[in-house]
Amino acid sequence: MLTAGVDIGAKTIKIVIVDDGEIKAKNITMSGYNLMESNAQAWADLETHYGYNTGDMDKILVTGAGRKAIKAADEVTEAVAAARGSFALCESVRTVIEVGSEEGRAIKIDEGGKVIDFAINEKCASGTGAFIEAMASVLGVPLEELGPMSLKSTSCVAIKAQCAVFAESELVTMIHSKIPKPDMARAIHDALAGRVVSMVRWVGIEQSVMLIGGVSRNIGFVKSLGQKLECEVIVPQDPEYVSAYGTALIAAGR
Amino acid sequence: MAEEFWRWTESRWTNPDLSWKDGKILTAGVDVGSVSSQAVITVDGQVYAYANTRTEPDSASSAIKAINRALEDTGGLTLANIQYTVGTGYGRVNVPFAQRAITEISCHARGANFIYGPTIRTVLDMGGQDCKAIRCDEKGKVTSFLMNDKCAAGTGRSMEIFADVLGVSINEVGELSLQVEEEPPPVSSTCVVFAKSEAIGLLRKGWPREKVLASYSSAMAHRVVSLLERIGVEKEFGITGGIAKNKGVVTRLEKELGVTALIPNYDPQIAGALGAAMIAQALAEKANSRQDSR
Amino acid sequence: MIANYGYKDGAGDFFITIDTGRCDGCGACAGACPAECFEVGQDPNDPLRDEPVAIVSEAVRKSIRYACGQCKRRADHAPLPCMEACPRDAISHSW
Known about the structure:
The structure holds three protein chains of three kinds.
Chain A: E1 2-8, E2 12-19, E3 22-30, H1 35-50, E4 59-63, H2 78-89, E5 95-99, E6 104-109, E7 115-121, H3 129-139, H4 143-150, H5 164-176, H6 181-203, E8 209-212, H7 219-229, E9 233-234, H8 242-251
Parallel strand pairs in A: 1-4, 5-8, 8-9
Antiparallel strand pairs in A: 1-2, 2-3, 5-6, 6-7
Helix pairs in contact in A: 2-8, 3-5, 3-6, 4-6, 6-7
Chain B: E1 11-14, E2 26-32, E3 36-43, E4 46-54, H1 59-71, E5 84-88, E6 100-101, H2 104-116, E7 122-126, E8 131-136, E9 142-148, H3 156-166, H4 173-177, H5 192-204, H6 209-231, E10 237-240, H7 247-257, H8 271-292
Parallel strand pairs in B: 2-5, 5-6, 7-10
Antiparallel strand pairs in B: 1-4, 2-3, 3-4, 7-8, 8-9
Helix pairs in contact in B: 2-8, 3-5, 3-6, 6-7
Chain C: E1 2-9, E2 12-19, H1 28-32, E3 38-41, E4 53-56, H2 58-61, H3 64-67, H4 69-72, H5 81-85, E5 91-93
Antiparallel strand pairs in C: 1-2, 2-5, 3-4
């Protein structure tokens, strides 16, 4: 049975195609301003690389913040998709943390992989990838360099503001005070980790803890998160595809 | 060099009808906010001079900049002549020449009481990085308050960001937002970061700048009203802080509340510093009377 | 004075209200709260008040929703320790 999971995020659209539980194809495209168009483009790219098109699928299921925009017939919530994908990758996972471009969530699952509690933040940029993007821009550092730079930090400074906008002002003050860039980079990741951990504590930290979503590729953030959680954090390969993968599995009734 | 749309005009003023040399008690209030700083000098309980400046990266410099600006054009008045200074605002503990630091809630109530008169009962202060709703009595004493300084939505900073993204000078955003024939729906995102992206999307869709501004001003007014309603609005109602000068937000606020805000008789942005100067006056009088009775 | 401590963000309004007219600074709330949300001392918003008063600690004020989580999310819906402890009914929560 060939199924597809489509995760329509604020920044990127992820598609994962699964056959008998095995990943056959995956694709990531920018969401852009027109989700219907971007979705069509994502499928076109998929066909070019792997030969699959929507007609080949026995079932397509959609998740993500933009799922309403493409008027999909069948959808599943982000929390359920993230839980399913994470559990499929590692059955010891009990706490799933997903940090996307414009949302963050913490999900508690039981030994069967079922969602038993969750906390979502989809209203506030703080606690999402948007926070890091805004800070990186103020610092004048390309997004992909921020993580590695923060690992070179030698001293700990703290950003106190909860809000991304106020944090920006604090960062400007730090720049004026000539705080070294690696230390500021670290402060940014610590701040994001702090907001995320508040949410995780809400559902309770229970090992194993898995981090998914695009922001997981930021090694600075992963380090800060692990420090604040005071436990190991599993980051799977291709962390941004986990929800789409979970969605494809659910579509196959798995 | 790129125009800085968010940069509002700094200002100062000296009272032409007063002379400081005849005054018995001279006091000062300095309000160091996260975005702007004000200094007010009073002579025997009357406003003598004030200045409104942009906050520097550190609070102490901001306080000094503000007081020096206020002291300009005063015919030789210096800090040495000022008997008592109270610092307030987010940077209040870092005003080097202040005798005391007092939180902004009580200072704003006192300041509003002076700016709007003793009939004022409800004060809305929309600062650079916070929003306060205050109820007070006829003496300017606080009876109830609420402050939101966690979230940028509904604060002056958010309007600066919108001015910047739309390329409109902050001094003009208010008027421009009123130039719409029909009120558009408010922006759907509460968060300023997301609202900014939403605004860019709307501009792309062909919305003119005034329509986007109207949409944001509407959302801002609505948000602030919900904060006010939590403590209740009793007439008379007055607005302090920088946003009081934004006609677009003020008009929408009044409409939603069903209450008209009083017209201030001084720059509403100086309310905190003014209140601080008034409290300084009271404290100076108290100190003087203790001296006299020895 | 009705003092409201907390914030409004995208998720809602989260305020703890202390009626300082009723509060006499006894500190029972500070003792009862497992998250150390309360402190007792000089009233920062009333420079003329001599009596101590309870305030919401600055350390938790801007994350009060999460700080109160452990009491508010209890399955048995037990009454909140701070409100139970206050002998003068000076505390209330907006959510």
